[in-house]
Amino acid sequence: MAEALLKIEGIHKRFGGLHALNNVGLTINKGEVYGLIGPNGAGKTTLFNVLTGLYQPDEGTFTFNGRDLFRAKPHVVVSAGIARTFQNIRLFAEMTALENVMVGRHIRSKAGALGAVLRNKGTMEEERSIRSKAMELLAYVGIADVAEERARNLSYGHQRRLEIARALATEPMLLALDEPAAGMNPRETDELKGLMHKIRDGGVTILLIEHDVKLMMDLCDRIAVLDYGKKIAEGVPEVVRKDPKVIEAYLGAAHA
Amino acid sequence: MTKALDTNKKVGLFLIAAVVLAVLPFIVGNTLGNSWIRIIDFALLYVMLALGLNIVVGFAGLLDLGFIAFYAVGAYTYALLGSPHFGLHLPFYITIPLGALFAALFGILLGTPVLRLKGDYLAIVTLGFGEIIRIFMNNLNAPVNITNGPQGINLIDPINVGGLSLGKALQVGGTSLNSVYLYYYMFLALTVLVVIMAWRLQHSRIGRAWVALREDDIAAAAMGINIRNIKLLAFALGALSGGVAGGLFASFQGFISPESFGLLESIMILAMIVLGGMGHIPGVILGAVVLTIAPEVLRDVIGPLQMKTFGRMLIDPENARMLLFGLALVVMMLVRPEGMWPSKRRKAEFEDAKEAAAQKG
């Protein structure tokens, strides 16, 4: 039996009169690639933001790896082991690629202001390990050659990879990717797929939002479908694809 | 090879700088007079202040228009504990650290309610905070007289280092070293400490977190940075150097009153940072020195110049001085918005912005 890593139940999120998430519950198991799809405005990104602590849900329960993360702050969520990327890439544009990943090590290191000023042995050692680990991760996602380049100047595909490297630097158990293939050409998408397999094989569970249905069917072990803030289907891709409710949500009632 | 050469070059530059800074007051004192050493002493105080504010504004990107409040806290701490006002005469090695500590506490006190604010809104709240501190100092003379109100505090103890009072001339051999010389070395030592502190903070895990916060606070939060703590740390550490400078100011002047801590002072310190090169330590130092010294040079030059060219005073020198000074700021910001000596990163930011503007047509 698969072991649950993340479990939410009865999650509600309202923005004024808009009921963005309506009684959403789902379970993500250790080691799987879990997909989240739905028409535009279905609440995918809202759910994503709830799961990564950027939004505070109004009601429900949220446990991760045995920890209660209901209404936890983002840094608590990250330290519990959930890291994310953004739909519209949010790198630290004026920092180098390497520095971006080094920021990702923040939560896994601890030198404070005093250590920074005194530059004691422990601090210097930690700083060296932050740097070497960051270099390692750049190589892991395949962009070690642009380590000293400013993030702003990287190609789109490289920026996507850098964002993944930065998220991996927080040593997540669950990596949440918000439309990582958006705007990529087929070759870049293929490479991304390879990278995601590598990450999953490295023992990191993946939560994925994506519009590219074919990619989702290829990659995901299980898929949940959101529509108007409600989960309308969940299961293995072949079953979800044939679900009449899903077809209706995507294509309109006439096709069902 | 080249690396060794670079190191040699660095050591060489460092030694030259050290020698220049060590003999500077003697050169200035013998050519321009002691009043100019006094101006340089003030320049050092402003370097400390600007470096402190630079932590908040330059590193963490939090616009603070009330920074002078921390200078005031440091100054009043020193004055109240080292003057006849309460009859307390604690030594400087207690009062200055205590002033720095109080200033840092006030930094956290200011930081806590403004955690959710950014940009313009933050600027307005900090401006209000700065004024509140000044008005408190102005009015805390009744019902219990704490700050002596607008009259200020007089006869503040000069710094006394192991029996050597910096407030009196020191006789060495045949020559006498004026108090401004002694304070120069005291200020220089502390300025060097503040520079080292700022430099090391910038190139650390904490410094990176500040830059991340400045560039994109949501992404920074999503990377696990505790936004609340890292902001408060910036406010506290910035205020700390402001507090040190404040204590030194009180001892140097021997007199403080709320008038010294007005909004214009806060704005001047901000101008030093922006004009020098926000976030870049050498630039900020340059900005502080130039903005302290330039108005004084103008003071010495404008009057005589008018007399020479027109034979009489056309414009009151004091007005003309500030007019020229304001004009210089305007021109500077139009010609070099990134500052006199920006960091590479910031220079690139401005070039990117220019390019983007050009592309839009």
Account of the 3D structure:
Chain B: The chain crosses the membrane at residues 12-32, 44-72, 92-112, 119-137, 182-201, 232-256, 268-298. Chain B: One of its GO terms (cellular component) is plasma membrane. Chain B: It comes from Gulbenkiania indica. The complex is a heterodimer of chains A (256) and B (361). With 256 residues, chain A is α/β, with parallel strands linked by helices. Chain A folds into two domains: 4-81 and 172-255, Rossmann fold, CATH 3.40.50; 91-155, no CATH class. Helices cover 39% and strands 24% of the residues of chain A. Chain A has ten helices and ten strands. In chain A, the strands form two sheets. Chain A has a six-stranded mixed β-sheet with strand order 6-7-8-3-9-10, with helices on both faces. In chain A, strands 2-1-4-5 form a four-stranded antiparallel β-sheet, with helices on one face. In chain A, strand 1 (4-15) and strand 2 (18-29) form a beta hairpin. The longest helix of chain A has 20 residues, at 121-140. Chain A is globular. The two termini of chain A are 34 Å apart. In chain A, 45% of the residues are buried. With 361 residues, chain B is mainly alpha-helical. Chain B folds into two domains: 1-31; 32-360, ABC transporter involved in vitamin B12 uptake, BtuC, CATH 1.10.3470. Chain B is 72% helix and 4% strand. In chain B, the strands form three sheets. In chain B, strands 1-2 form a two-stranded antiparallel sheet. A two-stranded antiparallel ribbon of chain B has the order 3-4. A two-stranded antiparallel sheet of chain B has the order 5-6. In chain B, strand 5 and strand 6 (175-177) form a beta hairpin. Chain B is globular and about 65 Å long. The termini of chain B are far apart. The mean pLDDT of chain B is 91. Classes of the chains: A alpha/beta (256), B mainly alpha (361). Chains A and B meet through helix 2, helix 3, helix 4 and helix 5 of A and helix 6, helix 7, helix 8, helix 9 and helix 13 of B.
